[in-house]
Structures are given as C-alpha cells and as structure tokens.
Amino acid sequence: MAHFHNVKHTTYYVELIMQQLTDTLMETNATVVRQSFSVKFAYDVYFTTHLFDGKNTLLKDFLHQHKSDTVKKIFFVVDEGVMNHHGYLDEQIRNYFSHETSIALVDEIMVVPGGEAAKNTESLLLKIVDAVDKYSIDRHSYIVAIGGGAVLDLVGYAAAISHRGIRHVRIPTTVLSQDDSAIGVKNGVNYKGKKNFLGTFAPPVAVFNDFYFLTTLTDAEWRSGISEAVKVALIKDAPFFAWLKENATVLAARNMEAMKYLVQRSAALHMEHIASGDPFEMGSSRPLDFGHWSAHKLEQLSGFTVKHGEAVALGIALDSAYSFVSGRLSEDDAKSIVDVLLDLGFSISHPLMEIKDESSPVIKGLEEFREHLGGKLTIMLLSAIGQGEEVHELDIALLQKASAWLGTI
Amino acid sequence: MAHFHNVKHTTYYVELIMQQLTDTLMETNATVVRQSFSVKFAYDVYFTTHLFDGKNTLLKDFLHQHKSDTVKKIFFVVDEGVMNHHGYLDEQIRNYFSHETSIALVDEIMVVPGGEAAKNTESLLLKIVDAVDKYSIDRHSYIVAIGGGAVLDLVGYAAAISHRGIRHVRIPTTVLSQDDSAIGVKNGVNYKGKKNFLGTFAPPVAVFNDFYFLTTLTDAEWRSGISEAVKVALIKDAPFFAWLKENATVLAARNMEAMKYLVQRSAALHMEHIASGDPFEMGSSRPLDFGHWSAHKLEQLSGFTVKHGEAVALGIALDSAYSFVSGRLSEDDAKSIVDVLLDLGFSISHPLMEIKDESSPVIKGLEEFREHLGGKLTIMLLSAIGQGEEVHELDIALLQKASAWLGTI
Ligand SMILES: NC(=O)c1ccc[n+]([C@@H]2O[C@H](COP(=O)([O-])OP(=O)(O)OC[C@H]3O[C@@H](n4cnc5c(N)ncnc54)[C@H](O)[C@@H]3O)[C@@H](O)[C@H]2O)c1
Ligand SMILES: NC(=O)c1ccc[n+]([C@@H]2O[C@H](COP(=O)([O-])OP(=O)(O)OC[C@H]3O[C@@H](n4cnc5c(N)ncnc54)[C@H](O)[C@@H]3O)[C@@H](O)[C@H]2O)c1
Ligand SMILES: [Zn+2]
Ligand SMILES: [Zn+2]
C-alpha cells in the first residue's frame, strides 16, 4: 500500500507528502513511497491415467471451472518423442474437444523436437510465439504442453512472455518432469549454450500427470527421474526414504504401482517445499539442490552425455559420503543411501566425479554453484536421513576422503 | 501448501494419498494436490533531484541495505536521448561509485536509442542480455535503467528474463514514466510491430525519480505525461483533480514545483491502485485504462505520430463526454474536464477520433480492447469526478453524440 497524508490542494506548493522518511532521506531532501503487495498463485496438480480418453473428464472439468462469456481457445504443443510413441494423441485430443462449445481447440497441434534440442533452438521459441499471434491466443486462453521437462520449459517460457503471460497447462510425460520439474514454477531456454540462461518464474494454472505416458520411456529415462525422489526424501522425509529402500528393486523393474506412489509423494514434497519456502528464489538458499552442485558440473563436463538424474544420483552419493566423513551422518546411513542408489540401477562413481586434489575438475562446480546462487555458497548436507543441514563451505580434504570412501564400495 | 495424509510405507501399494477429492475426481480415479502460495513484492519509490551528485547518498544507501559477503555488480543502461542532454552523466556515475568497495560498477555504461525504437529492435534486447553474460551479472547484481518509458520497458524485460530475473532499478526521466509507468510492474518490447507483444510482470527493486531530468524534455513530452495524472485523478481522487484544475496553467508553463507535486501524487495513486487491486492483471478489469480504449487505437491509426499521452487526453475527453451523454456525469463536470485538458495545452479533437457512425475507424478500438482484456469488454467511465464506474458495453449512437458534443466546444 502506498501511503500519503492529505495535502492542501489550494496551491502548487509541494508539501513533503510521504511518511516514513528516514533522517537520511531528510538530509538528501528526498521523499519515498513504499510499495508492497502479495500476489497469490494457486494451481492444482492432478494424477491420472489416460487423460484424453473420452470418459476421463478431468481436464474438461478443470477448463469449465473458469466460467466466462467468451469461448476460450486452447493450443497444444507436443513433444515429438511422445508423439512417436503415442501417435493416437493427435486424433484423441481432437475427439476430446469435438463436442465442446465453450472451448475452441486451435486447429494446429504443434509438434516440437523433445529433449535439450527444444531448449537450444531459438526458432522453436519464436514458432510458438508466432502461433500465439497467428491464432490470436490471449491471456485468457490456454497453452498446453505435453512432454518431457525440456519441452515443458520451452513452452512454459513462450507462454510466460507472450502477452505478459498466457495461462499455461503442463502435462509432463517423464518421471523427472512428473515427480519434480512440472509441479514447480520455473521455465526457461538455453542461450548461446548456457543452460536456462533465459527464463522466468511463472506457475502453471494446472498440471496433469498421466502415468500411462511413463510406459514408453527407455529404462534409462525411467530410472533417471527417480533420483529427485531420493533427493527430496533424504532432506525431508525419512519414512519415504524407507519406502524407497524397500521398493528400490521393484522400481528398477518398472513396477507401475510403485512408480505412481513415488511420483505422487515426490511431487507433493516438492510442492510443499515450494509453497513454504521462497518460490521465486529471491534469497540465495536452494535446499532442493541437494546433490546438485557436483551434478551440474558433471553434466557439463560430460558434454551432457550423463543425464541430469544420473548426475544427481552421483551427486547425492558424494554429498552423503561427505556428510559421513565430516561427522554429520553415520556410516551406516551413508551406506544405506548408496545401496538404494545401486539397487535402483544408478552408478555411484564416474571418472569425472573423482576428487583427488583441488585441481579435480568437478571442484570447479563449487565456485560455479556459488555464482549461480549469486550470494554466498550454500550447500545442503545431511545430518540424518530425512534431515537436511545447510553449510557455507566444503573442505577439499574431506571431499577427497568422501570420494575415496565411495571408491571402496 | 500441499496436503497428504500418512501412508503405509511397508508396501508399494498406492493408497489414494490426496485429500479434497471431489466426486468427479473419484469417478475418474484421479487424485489431486492443490498448491497455493503468495509471493511478496516490496519496493521503494524515491523522489529526489540530482541523484548522482556526490552529496546525494540516496541510491548508495539503498544499495547498502542489501548486506552481503560478496561484491555486488551494478550495470547501467542509459537512454541516448537523456545522455544527449545530460552528457555529464557518464562521468558522474563513475565518480559516484569510485569509492565503493562493496559495489562494483560494470565498466561499460551502455547507451541505447530512446523512444519506441528501443522496443522495436530485437538486437538491443540481445545486446543487454549478452552484457549480462559477458559481465557475469547474477541474480543478486543490479541492472539500472535511466530513461523514458520505452527504455525502461526494454531494460526491465531484459532484466526479467536473464537468469529468471536480475534485480532491476528504474530511473525514469520523462513525466509519463515518473508519474505512471516506472512505478508499475510491467515491462515489454514490441514484436513484429505488435506493441508490448512480449513482456512480463516483474516489479523493480526500487525506483528513483530525479526531477532534474524533466528540465530537458520538449514541451510536448513535458505535457504528454500529465494526462495520466488527470486520468488517475478523475477515477480516484477529486481533490487532486481540483488541484490540477487550479494549476493547469502553471503546469503548462513548466512550473517545476507544481510538476513535482503532480508526479508524486499521481505516482502514489497509481501505486495504491496496483497494491490494492490485481497487480499481475489476472482478471480482466483494467481500471487504470480509463480513456485508453480509443487512445490505443488512435496511436495506431496515426502511425504513432500522436504520442501516448496526447492520445490519452483525447480518450479522456471522449469517455468523459460519453459519461455525460449517457447520463452518468453532469455537463458541468464534463465541461470542466475538457477545460483542464485545454488549459494544459492538449487537443480534445482529432480527425481520426471523430465518430460519425459505426464505420468510424476508432470504433474498432473497442473490439481490440476486448481482445486485449481477453474476456468480456470492461470500460471505465465516470459517475462523478474522482469516481470511476465500469461498464461492459458502449452504445454507438451515444458515442456519436459524445463525439458531436466535443465538437461544439
Ligand atoms: N523447470 C524446472 O524447474 C526444471 C527442473 C528440473 C529439470 N528441468 C529441465 O528438464 C529437462 C529434462 O527433462 P526430462 O528429464 O523430462 O527429459 P527431456 O525433456 O530432455 O526428455 C528426454 C527424452 O524423452 C523423450 N520423451 C518424453 N516423454 C516421453 C515418453 N512418455 N515416452 C517416450 N519418450 C519420451 C523426449 O522426446 C526426449 O527425447 C532439462 O532441460 C532440465 O533443465 C527443469
Ligand atoms: N510498463 C508500463 O506499465 C508502461 C505504461 C505506460 C507506458 N509505457 C511505455 O512507455 C513508453 C513511452 O514512454 P515515455 O512517454 O516516457 O517516452 P519515451 O520513452 O518514448 O521517450 C520519448 C523521447 O524522450 C527522450 N527522453 C527521455 N528522457 C528525456 C529527458 N530527460 N530529456 C530529454 N529527452 C528525453 C527519449 O530519448 C525519447 O526520444 C511507451 O513505449 C509505452 O508503451 C509503459
Ligand atoms: Zn534436479
Ligand atoms: Zn497510459
């Protein structure tokens, strides 16, 4: 609320109309109006199977919640990797909306390349922005993205900057995007090879997780997203970690019922964290980045041949080992974390992750992480399973010890 | 807050873990987690003279508020039109920061063309984004823009999308940007000739209004921004309108003390509106757009030779006349509004604004405004001076009458 007290209106003499002037302000003969307000964001995250089946009214019900006098447009952008395995989707989406009178499906269902290519190609961003223009998609229309985290990041960014933000619905199709990224508030694209250099904080209006999509992932993609669930369990939820431990083998064997539980629990924990913390990351603490300082560096060092989730598993192993060798965590607990990762099928060592001395390549990730946070270094470690603890520096000798301990397993 | 109740962790059987399931959700066998959180934004708007004078510590004091362990970078982008008249600025800014140890001025002080050209040129946007990369400007650094509304919109947008938002300080240098646009939460650039097609809602971290900049505006620029103050007075603050009426002649004669009052009062009213309303414009009501439906259309019809503020003055005249002929406002009040606009030196008629029948060109502005709002048409009229009233349609016959009445003055 802006504040000012009443002024005489009979003359153009300027009274100092603002309150809360500090002495300094007085000395500099300046005035100030302090502005502050809160913006509320709310969205629902649904979990279902066969979202576009004619009998599944979940999405329609959501769209009908926003009553209006005008017909709302809805524009779909689909990950090519998804379309290749779910070719029926195009027709299914058209059928799904064919009897709707208050919702107009935009005739073009746009297919874009999946994976990091989606975020590396400026022309794809402009293709979506141009479609917004061409089809007169306004701020009360919907742009729906169906795909992996990369396509969601691209489409979410295009939606966020077009007309200062068009309603955006996310339909994540990978484990990582369902159990972590899609329920969050970030989007972005790469610029000149720099990961997520351009982007915004812009919550979706809804997220629909359709488990059926997960059936067509490669084993590596299926596994990869599981490390984010391990991460969030380790810093927040010991019982969930116990569950992961018990179910690691069936998860690795692609048991869908186990995966459904994992996705929902991990998504809910991530959501709870976002809502209770600093959703737009205005501070410089990033608790959900447990295991990530080295993971980011490894992805880059490997030329992105190591997947994010695989790198995170390696990062979790390293930081759990560090938590042990620095006296925070028992050896048994550290061992049990490593065992779960191994049972899930992850590697816990990689030549580029080895720390022999301060010139080991992954060490540079610490400084880059500090720069990324933009303030002082803040690293999450574990003081127990289910219990994170933030520290502001890591000791290179202890990192060596942690790396060596992992080598013994 | 995400909700879920406790689950058994001894098996991978998936319980329906989410609460608040509606019947429909049950039927579709889906679960939902509802997310909601608020993000608080706060920023101070300062009014001063000679901001970069060595003795004026206002900006330094602000920068020192954010204590940190690391040296913060500060990067300046300046409107060429400002630099042409205030050539000392480059040296003054360098001197201002020369003894600072916790703030590092980026060596390049970037100068960009002013006016709409700033928003029409994609390479300018990328030039700023590239500087963010080149100088490693992070989310805890500052990007400061000095200039008119166009340069502020450009730099604000570049800051908002780089690294998902770098701290942005605005130093507006025109009447319009000081009394209206800079204190707001919007930024943007034009795309393929479409005004503000790309942009975001991203509040600045602070705004510093330096009245001295206003001394070098042309008479037309000086006057142009005044119509936004008239606008906000008419819909919100009768005493301020009375003050404007009394001071219209001295304002037109470029009295600086009167202008200081006008800027502060108008800025405070705009700020109060933003904080108490719908800052990120998620609904489809836009009360501060009084007089703007026809103004936007006129700017476009005139190929942007009519300035925004001049067009707004014409739009205010038309919608005040409409408020009178539709029986909301007395003829005396309508007349007094028109008189103030004339005393300020504005035109109240323009060939392209005349409404003779439904084919008159400005009429198309109504439909475009509805599209812009993205829902139903909502137009602000006056039920009294200082009192806005929203309506959802305008009558063409009454618009003709309003236009004709203006012709008699
Ligand atoms: N916005 C955030 O908060 C956030 C958080 C974490 C990660 N991310 C981003 O997410 C991206 C990684 O996402 P990802 O792990 O989901 O992988 P991805 O989007 O890179 O997709 C990997 C591959 O799987 C294919 N694919 C997607 N769904 C499929 C399906 N159902 N069946 C078969 N193939 C399918 C894609 O076409 C692609 O080839 C990265 O760009 C990362 O930066 C964003
Ligand atoms: N973000 C918002 O909420 C918002 C609101 C209203 C208007 N706007 C935008 O603001 C822009 C108009 O801004 P404006 O009216 O400030 O004009 P402007 O930025 O177009 O500048 C007009 C001219 O004045 C010059 N100039 C600026 N300061 C000067 C000074 N002190 N002395 C001499 N010359 C100077 C500029 O170089 C330019 O040539 C439009 O693009 C409009 O869309 C934005
Ligand atoms: Zn991650
Ligand atoms: Zn305006």
From TrEMBL, chains A, B:
GO terms for molecular function: 3-dehydroquinate synthase activity. Residues 225-353 form the 3-dehydroquinate synthase C-terminal domain. It is an enzyme of class 4 (lyase). The keyword Ligase does not apply. It holds the Pfam family DHQ_synthase. Its EC number is 4.2.3.4. InterPro entries: Dehydroquinate_synthase, DHQ_synth_fam, DHQS/DOIS_N, DHQS_C. Its cofactor is Co(2+); NAD(+). Residues 110-223 form the 3-dehydroquinate synthase N-terminal domain. Gene3D superfamilies: 3.40.50.1970, Dehydroquinate synthase-like - alpha domain. Keywords: Amino-acid biosynthesis, Aromatic amino acid biosynthesis, Cobalt, Lyase, Metal-binding, NAD. This is 3-dehydroquinate synthase. It comes from Danxiaibacter flavus.
